[in-house]
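QA checklist item 7 of 12: single-chain prediction sanity check.
[x] sequence parsed
[x] length recorded as 474
[x] structure emitted
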Amino acid sequence: MANNTVIHWFRQDLRLTDNPALFAAAQAGKILPIYILDDKNAGDHAMGAASRWWLHHSLTALHESLKKTLHIFLGKPEEILPKLIQEHNVNAVFWNRCYEPWCIQRDQNVKGLLKDMNVEVSSFNGSLLWEPWQIKKKDGGNYKVFTPFYRKGCLQALPPREPLSAIEPTNFYTGNVASDSINALNLLPSIAWDKVMRETWEIGEAAALGRLEEFIDYGLSDYKEGRNFPAKHNVSRLSPHLHFGELSPNQAWYAVKQQSLEANVDCFMSELGWREFSYSLLYYYPDLPIDNLQKKFNAFPWLDDKEALSRWQKGMTGYPIVDAGMRELWQTGYMHNRVRMIVGSFLVKNLLLHWHYGEKWFWDCLVDADLASNSASWQWVAGCGADAAPYFRVFNPVTQGEKFDPDGEYTLQYVPELSNLPRKYLYKPWEASTEILQAAGVILGKTYPKPIVDIKESRLQALNAFASIKNIPK
């Protein structure tokens, strides 16, 4: 065993702690750690710009943790792995599973190819609390509603495995390996639009563990209520760390579970459950990123308004809470979850633009862009997914702002042009008199946009559109 050379193929598991495949590889021989940038098969869901930016810095952190022994490749694993195996007399390949449909197909192909070469292949669950196929209904079918999925499925299943200890980067292959540099992957933007993102995030395994600890110390105690208020620091902001595997959900699950804050702990753990639910949906419905789960929405009368889409993307709709969210997304690569629901509802219900537009924009702009969560969430807000929000539930951006950001602390951080406006008018500046607007230095249509649609009329239009497909079978 000690003389064997084995490959650990890093993918969405960029950490040394609680890494099942890496842990197993360490027992099998000297580890040759590799990362292959391979998203050519992903089609429209090749990594977006914000994700590529995060990946660059995450790989850099991992390379340092591995004492600069991580080997980087760009291309097809089907070609790269056999070459490495032959050149370095590799006995086995280890990896943690990915669940995107194209990854599943690719991994099946690679596994067959390597077995034909008489190379041992071992894959593990390093990204989920439960495998999708573990959580089934009594009749053997998969769940389509979250609450029974989580309460009857997940919580009645065997508990998630306890986190594994860290692997010390000592038993690693020392031979000369021809590989690329991280810079050769060209993950960073050619035009430096990432300044605020660099100031916003710390990236890598150590940062992820620190963020988890900080959340437990300062955010968890009021998580259930406080997570709805974007100006408060109660959300975990762990999503990008979880997506890239700098932190495992098992680490988060058990670290939070041992806290004596029952309602808040249960609420946070159920949010991890939503992540599991999204992966289950993607596994059983691989066309989730594209096709409406409720087929009647194929007949929905979406509008095609490129100007409205552009104004939504730029945060120039004239509705301050919506604009704040879209500007936060553009500047930081992130958006508070409550605000994600508000801007999503506004796009598909007030602007009547297809949820595909939102899904694609988020995919490119979010540092936590995750195929399962992004697709399931957009179908949820559009009303066409599993366990979806009813289509007639339309988030009112005025009342949502007044309720969840009453002092405007969050909104004015991203819409500073309204800073001098009395808070009474912050979420409806069009109701302020000319004198009040002038005193605040606001000129609607110039310094801040006029509303792109009338909120009441657009809601009625959305309800009429829904009524047109209401009687079509699901």
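[x] summary fact logged: The CA atoms of residues 232 and 277 lie 27 Å apart.
[ ] second reviewer sign-off
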